[in-house]
Write a structure and sequence with these properties.
The protein is 67% helix and 6% strand. The longest helix is centred in the C-terminal third of the chain and has 30 residues, at 355-384. The strands form two sheets. Strands 1-2-3 form a three-stranded antiparallel beta sheet, with no helix packed on it. Strands 4-5 form a two-stranded antiparallel ribbon. Helix 13 (281-295) packs parallel to helix 17 (355-384). Strand 2 and strand 3 form a beta hairpin. By secondary structure, the protein is mostly helical. The chain contains 20 helices and five strands.
Length: 472
């Protein structure tokens, strides 16, 4: 009996023994383990990586140290420093412009997404507010759903009498489809997925063997029922194979709980933000950045211009210090959201509060919404991906978000020139040299494979060259 108990105890202890190959990791732990190195290797932020707490720590610590140093410098900096910072900003604009082009190439799948990228960029340039950007993306998602489901096409058909020629042509097309099914010797057509979801490109072959392509709108629910299984049903039911070491195993119940809990905290913070008359400085800082982190889409380049309104206009950070931090963050590893750490520290110091408290609150406020919503959505995506309207709406949202990156390029261009005579910053177009620096960083990264940190540092060096020529 004793021997049996001893054997079972040893077996139980062996099962509990730590083994990195067999132990199941928690979702957050798995995310950290697979992506920790990005915090040390990813610079500049846009279109380079996604961020979690562990990854952003190196850059966040650096930005906190920078805020302490900036708070102790004189109001007027040496002129070579202004030239250096203007060069860094110019190179940064070029890098973000390249990121916008690369993102657009992926987001544009058809004519409607191309139009939405353009409209998102132009609408963002014309008006600037925190609530405005989410509204643009919601409308863009609604547009793609309307387009993909052909709701407007159906409305235009009602009350419109077709001409005899169009009707005859359409009837001939339908008759040809019926008489010449796939594989028929007289003519055949094959379908292949286009770059857009639920769209297809039909290649038709006539009796002579000559083929031509004809693009069609995304398949509607009624059309799906008439399609051959080999064409569409296989694509709709095909399961994605996720490697075991990449599966975070987040259930939809856990994801839904995360989203509900976040919405409750967000509502509480926003109600207090609107009700309290004499809000403490640190709470106001947290509330503003929590709001920005929740409703801003498109990443760091989009949120940075709006942080100027919600931090600088509040009187917590001077325009000069904002521009200095904007120039320096591009040379730090990690995401652009680490800029909030810098601003939070300076905001706390302006109200005689501990700088570390302001930096920590700003860090949590800007990162928490995205982290919670992403992990919550990962759990729900298994269920949501089965709905065609969800994928259709995401096409429009993604296109509008890419357009907002172009808006960020314009906003940063307008304030990138740092000089003692322009406390709030000026347009980089004031001197052709900064246009050259921007173009150099863009072409260097795009055509010659120059790493982003090297391109940004090269921009700073070109700024010093400009100072040497002008001052000499």
């Amino acid at each position: 009996m004793a021997q049996t108990l001893k054997t079972r105890l040893l077996s139980f202890l062996r099962d509990l023994k730590y083994s990195p190959r067999t132990r199941k990791q928690w979702p957050f732990e798995a995310t950290v383990a697979k992506n920790w190195h990005l915090g040390f290797t990813s610079f500049g932020g846009p279109a380079v990586h996604f961020t979690i707490f562990h990854e952003s720590l190196p850059g966040a610590i650096g930005m906190y140290g920078l805020s302490i140093g900036i708070s102790k410098v004189n109001e007027i900096l040496p002129r070579p420093v202004y030239a250096l910072l203007s060069g860094l900003n110019s190179a940064t604009v070029g890098v973000i412009a390249l990121a916008a082009v690369q993102l657009a190439q992926k987001a544009i799948t058809d004519k409607i997404t191309r139009v939405l990228v353009f409209l998102g960029a132009t609408a963002g340039m014309l008006y600037n507010a925190l609530w405005y950007f989410p509204l643009l993306m919601f409308l863009a998602g609604l547009v793609t759903v309307t387009w993909d489901f052909r709701w407007l096409h159906r409305l235009t058909r009602i009350g419109r009498k077709k001409s005899n020629g169009d009707e005859e042509l359409e009837m001939n097309d339908v008759e040809q489809r019926r008489q010449n099914p796939p594989g028929d010797a007289r003519g055949s057509q094959t379908t292949s997925p286009s770059s857009g979801p639920n769209a297809r490109v039909v290649r038709q072959t006539d009796s002579s063997g000559k083929g031509y392509q004809r693009s069609e709108l995304p398949i509607t629910a009624n059309e799906t029922l008439t399609q051959t299984p080999e064409v569409d049903l296989h694509d709709a039911t095909e399961e994605r194979v996720i490697p075991a070491d990449r599966d975070l195993n987040i259930s939809w119940q856990f994801g839904a709980s995360l989203i509900v809990a976040f919405l409750a905290t967000f509502a509480a913070v926003m109600i207090l933000r609107g009700v309290l008359i004499n809000r403490p400085l640190l709470f106001s800082l947290f509330a503003n950045l929590y709001l920005a982190g929740t409703i801003i889409f498109g990443g760091g380049p989009v949120v940075i211009p709006l942080l100027r309104e919600y931090v600088v206009n509040e009187g917590w950070v001077s325009p000069r210090d904002f521009l200095l931090g904007l120039a320096m963050i591009q040379a730090f590893p990690g995401p652009n959201f680490n800029f909030a750490v810098y601003l939070g520290s300076l905001a706390a110091l302006s109200g005689s509060k501990p700088s570390f408290a302001g930096a920590l609150l700003a860090y949590l406020a800007i990162f928490s919404p995205g982290l919670i919503l992403v992990h919550g959505t990962m759990g729900l995506w298994v269920k949501l991906r089965t709905y065609r309207w969800v994928k259709s709406g995401l096409r429009g949202i993604n296109a509008a978000a890419v357009g907002l990156v172009y808006t960020a390029v314009y906003r940063l261009w307008q304030i990138g020139y740092v000089h003692e005579d322009f406390a709030a910053g000026a347009s980089l177009g004031r001197d052709p040299w900064w246009v050259v620096v921007t173009a150099t960083s863009y072409t260097g990264c795009c055509w010659f494979g120059v790493p982003i940190p090297v391109a940004i540092l090269l921009g700073g060096g070109m700024g010093l060259v400009w100072y040497g020529v002008v001052s000499g």
